[in-house]
Structures are given as C-alpha cells and as structure tokens.
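Teaching assistant here, posting this on the class forum so everyone can see the example we discussed in section. The complex has two components, and the goal was to see what a joint structure prediction looks like when all of them are supplied at once.
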Amino acid sequence: MAAEQKMTYETWPASPEKQTLEAKNKFLGFWFFLGGETVLFASLFATYLALKDKVPSSDMALAKDLFEIPLAFMMTMLLLTSSLTSVYAMYHMKNFNFKKMQLWLGITVLLGLGFLGLEIYEFNHYVHEFHHSFTSSAFGSAFYTLVGFHGGHVAFGLLWITTLMIRNSKRGLSLYNAPKFYVASLYWHFIDVVWVFIFTVVYLMGMVG
Amino acid sequence: MANQQPNSGNPRVDIEYRRKKSAEEMKHQVITFAMMIFLTIVAFVAAGYEGFSAWFIVPFILILAVVQVIFQLYYFMHMSHKGHEAPALFLYSGALVGFITIIAFLTVIWW
C-alpha cells in the first residue's frame, strides 16, 4: 500500500502504523531508541541514588524536608491521565476518526502542560524556600538533572505532538502520518513509565527516608 | 487480536468486527488505567503511613512501580500484541544494562 494513497473508512487497515516499509522501520527504530532512553534514565537514577542527601552542611534541606505528598500526587495523576487520553487518541486513529484523534491529542497536551506548570512551580519553590538549587549540593545537581531531564522530555513531547497536530490538521489521516502519531504516543507513554519510577524512587522513597 | 487483518471477504463485516474488537480492547485499557490509579494511591498511602518501617515500604512501593510499568508497556504501549519481539528485546536489554548501572552505583558508595 502506498503511503500517500487516499484512504477511506473502508480501506483503512487494522494496523495503519505498520503498513509501509518506512512505518515498519520507524516502529523498530523508535523502540531501539526507547531501549537507549532506558539506559540513559537508569544512569541518572543511579547517580541520584548515590548522591541523595549528600549536602555540604547539616543545615541544608534533605529529601524528607523538601518533598510533599499532595504536589507529587497531583503531578502523577495528571501524567497518568494524559497517558490514557493518548490511548484514546490512538483508538480513534485505528478507527480512522481524525477529528476525535486530534481532540484527544489536544487533551493530552493540556494535561502535559498542567504537569509541566506544576513542575516549574515545584522547582521555583525549592530554590526560593529551601535554597536547594542545581549548584548548592551534589544532591541538588543529581535531583535537578534527573527530574529536569524528565521534564525536558515532557516539554519535547508536547512540542512534538503539537507540531504533528498542526502540520496534519488539514491533511487528515494517511498511511504516511499514522505511524508518526503512533510513535509520538509511544514516546508519551514512555515518559509516563519514567515518571512512575521518579515518583516512587525520588518522592515516595525521599519522604520515607 | 485487534491488529490482525480479518478476511471474511466482506469488508463491511470485517470493519464491524474490527470496531468491536478495538472497542473491547479500549475497555481493557480503561480497566488497566483504573488499576494503575489504584496502585498509585496504594503507594502514596503506604509512603505516608507512619506505622510501617522503611524496610517494608521501600520494597513494597518498588514492586508496585514495576507492576504499573508492566501495565503501561504491555497494554498502553501494546507490547502484548504480535510483532513486538524486537521491541521487547531492545527494551529488556536497556533495562538490564540500566539495572547493572544502578547496582554498580549503589554498591560503590557502601563504605
């Protein structure tokens, strides 16, 4: 099937994300990238765990002084829900319903923006209330590198999805752009996978001690 | 599974069948989501509860995280579907290297 072929509801295949050779390569290549991302984040987690609470003087804030349950919980709920909304978007993509896919992608972007807003508030709060900054201690460097890298991924994912939505807004679905949407949604889920470990290892384990 | 091409010879029937299949799958996704929310709440409650020691809470919430990630990978990212052998190989190789890295960093600070 040619990628540019005009599709209809009847001719839309069951796995539009893997119909063309380019799509198959994209799918495989993206999962290879996610394997690499796993190693990248694992290294940042390892660094964080090794440097957690390593501060130069005893009056500086430690993990248990910084983190609060309500904020971490809110952020988790926003990101987890955005994962479900992007599943909805891919459900409509498979049913060749372009408008509904765009709608759910839009909701995903809004939830992601909410998450990013809370993270900016959080970092600002730590810097100004606790003098916990990137350069204040090894703990600070490791914390902002790990959580900030994740936040950077969220920001990149938002730009990516928004760009796809705008670029294809007048084109509708085709076998050329369906894999692009699919891969972007995989990336978004992966961000959530990383966050599950961040809220567990950084926030919850930080509060426990 | 929903990702197989049906072949009854009648495209209309096939579409109806596929729609039903993916609606069914979507229902499973929502159940998965509900369970993930539930596990998250359990983890937050366990971490906030004073009565447990850290020796119980830490392994407990780590296991909850692993279960949640398996849900995310196999249901939301469709790794349970056919044709995901290579993705599984890539991801598990990454996870293995990552795990060794974490073990190395945790043991190097022991003294």
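For the discussion questions: Chain B has two domains: 1-80, 83-111. Chain B has three helices and no strands. Think about how each of these relates to the inputs above.
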